[in-house]
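quick one before i forget lol
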Amino acid sequence: MSLDPREVLIAPVVSEKSYSLIEGNKYSFRVHEKAHKTQVRQAVEELFDVKVEHVNILKVQAKPKRRGLQRGIRPGWKKAIVE
């Protein structure tokens, strides 16, 4: 599947853990559900003009949530950690 680099990288992940990884030159991105490591590497190199050494991809699991009697599920998503 061919994706544009702007479609591969959806958004940066903003959390305490992702900010602590920045000190080690590791950056976290939310990526397209069908994107693989090679596409993530090419997208980061093209958009940010850097040389990527490693790409780790993981799936963030969906979580059950509840507000009062209303039950639901927050959707899962795919995250890439780029070094």
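fyi The beta strands are 9-12, 27-31, 55-60, 63-67, 70-74, 77-82.
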